[in-house]
Design a protein that fits this description.
Helix content: over 70%
Number of strands: 2
Radius of gyration: 18 Å
Largest sheet: 2 strands, antiparallel
């Protein structure tokens, strides 16, 4: 593939859309499990379709990531930082795929439908099983926490590249030109 300075525009758009969706989802999830008010049903009605949307977007994003040219990391970046960048991106993708699948499996095991609105109901991906639900419920919370931590580390690294190193890594995802 040819050498590029910026990620593909569709990949950049998906990155920022998913960043907003994942942060919203994490905060909705926390609010959802911490309330017993009538707000709970409203939050659940947002949480499920947003999770499915994130799952679909991450699949499209993975396809785009491998189908389009990507900018190289700067030559000035030490090897261990390159390795950490690749590992952290891999972890982010695994968590972004796993979290909605775990949620869907958890609801399936509990016998709850995954409704997306407009009468769309996804089929269960697991049979109803109390033991499965008992395993998946805390796993969904643990993966959410890991995703939050990983996103915050990713944000810290992005700001480090943007504000301290100013090495073009952040610009490659924003598409902004060098001043």
């Amino acid at each position: 593939m040819k050498q590029v300075d910026y990620f593909h525009p569709a990949l950049r758009a998906l990155h920022w859309l998913m960043a907003a969706a994942i942060l919203a989802m994490l905060f909705i999830g926390v609010a959802m499990v911490s309330t017993v008010s009538s707000l709970h049903s409203f939050l659940v009605s947002i949480h499920k379709p947003l999770g499915v949307m994130i799952l679909l977007l991450v699949v499209v994003r993975l396809w785009l990531r491998y189908a389009t040219a990507k900018p190289n990391l700067p030559d000035t970046l030490p090897g261990w930082q390159r390795l950490m960048a690749h590992i952290s991106h891999g972890v982010l993708y695994v968590l972004m795929l796993a979290q909605p699948l775990i949620g869907w499996a958890m609801l399936s095991a509990a016998g709850y439908p995954v409704t997306l609105g407009a009468g769309i109901v996804l089929p269960p991906i697991l049979p109803m099983n109390n033991d499965g639900y008992a395993l998946l419920r805390p796993l969904h919370s643990i993966v959410a926490l890991l995703l939050f931590i990983t996103v915050m580390l990713h944000l810290a690294a992005a700001l480090f590249h943007a504000l301290i190193l100013r090495d073009g890594v952040f610009r490659s995802m924003t598409g902004s030109r060098k001043r």
